[in-house]
Amino acid sequence: MYTVKCCGVKFKPATLLVTYVDNSTKKQRCRSIPIKKLKESTNVARIAEDLKSTQRHRTLLNTVSQAQLERLLITIQGHMKGNTLEQSLQEAKTKLSVDPEKDLNLLGTREIERAKLIMNESFESHRIKPEDPGFQYDIEVDFGNNDDERSCEWDSDDQEEF
Predict the structure, then answer these.
(1) What is the model's pTM?
(2) Which residue of 85, 90, 99, 122 lies most exposed, with the fewest beta carbons within 10 A?
(3) How far apart are CA 46 and CA 48, in angstroms?
(4) Which residues face 145 on adjacent strands?
């Protein structure tokens, strides 16, 4: 079993670099995965799926998210198009984000799954776990006075007898 520490890219030749710890020997290693099929107009989601399903890389890449692999591949693809690193990273960020104004009910199944994948990765990156240093258990947040509070019939303290 492996524990992936970080992933990166090398542009010439197009290569995915994965740094991991081999849990059986406790040694840190780095694997270079050449990306031969990637062209300027290739679907990066398909290549990421192929990488994760390949017998040789399956055990290593099963803990790496699909969105992270796509982000790395989009970065390589941007470099192939002649973009700078900053432009490539910005392109990856825009491609792998969900527009909050977009109605997800109008999308197809594949697009919805992709949006869920992106939102889940965003949630996981911002989540504070109990073992994190800044974790607090019971945080109470006051969102200010809401002058528009209205009482409702079902919310009253008066009990009516029937």
Answers:
(1) 0.68
(2) 99
(3) 5
(4) none
Helices (H), 62-104: 66-80, 85-95
140 within a domain of the structure (yes/no): no
The pair of three-digit structure tokens given for residue 43, joined into one six-digit string:
């679907």
70-100 pLDDT tens trace: 899 999 999 999 888 899 888 888 888 888 8
Determine how many CB atoms are found less than 10 A away from the CB of residue 48. 24
Count the residues in the chain: 162
Would you state the structure tokens that stand for residue 89, as one six-digit string?
Answer: 């990273």
**Domain extent at residue 61:** 2-96
For the chain, what is the domain count? 1
CB 45 within 8 Å of CB 73: no
Residue type, 85: L
Q: Prior bond to 13 cis, omega within 30?
A: yes
Other CB atoms within a 10 A radius of the CB of residue 106 amount to 8
The helix (H) or strand (E) run that includes residue 97 is: none
Cα distances (angstroms) measured from residue 147 to each of 127, 134, 143, 150, 151: 32, 33, 12, 9, 12
